[in-house]
Please model this.
Amino acid sequence: MKFGVFLYQPEPVEGVDYNFYRQKSESGIVGKVNPEMYTNIAVFGDNNMAAQRPDWVSVSSFGPALRTNPRFNLRWDVVCMTNPEAREYNLKIIKESAKLSPGISISSQHFADQGFCTCPRCIAAQAKSGLSWVEWRAKTVTDFLAEVKEIVSGKPLFVNCLPDPMLGKLRFGYDFEAMAQYADYFVIPMFSKGYPTPWYWETIARGFKSVLKKPVFVNFYVRGPNETWDTVAPTNQIMTVATRVARQGVDGIIFLAEKAEYIQKFQKEAAADKQTREALKGHGGDDVLELFARWEKLYK
Model:
């Protein structure tokens, strides 16, 4: 099993196999590639682009793909993925990043949710395709992924998918079998400010592991932007959910934090919490417990 971190700042940490830098998060702000880190780029989830070009925002019969739309649980604003200018802009960032980064991770490379997008361009494209609405959307997502794969220069491609293994195609346009032709790894964000019930996360992980044809990583939330240590899960909850999910056969675990110092604090606490580590023995997640043991050596 491999382990990584997902950071909003280009400062890597020790003790993991992969350091990912969110060069372009859903805020839309674009940073500078760190050649020592894998690069993550959020594509059509782009608050800045949506604010600058509201006419590019993805639409549905229940309104636009904005965080302010109460009909949907959107964590960011989403522009239409068939918009040629938005596609070109993001593909250029991905291409330039791939020249320097050891690997590329993309997220928000899909439709906003069920019912999107009903702009005239999408309606015309679906009608021209001769496909059903669901199949056309899935082909659109897969075709974009194929474009990304072509420009990443043979480097590993991590594809993030929102955590719905059952209705991913209907909601977001995920054709998991088709996407597996282009993804080297799938990453499933399992972000929460609390993990008191690991069973639910195990269920989601088990579902994805059963349908995805490439290695599956899961991504847990340590401390993202605009959080304090009081508003996120305690370290022992993250330790527990990671250990429990590992036994479902996932191929890797990634921990998200805004800054390297937040990951380092988590590492120190996980290494020091021998009581939780002892309690988790025999749960089937020995690879995670071995990781915590290795971290102990980092902070002697």
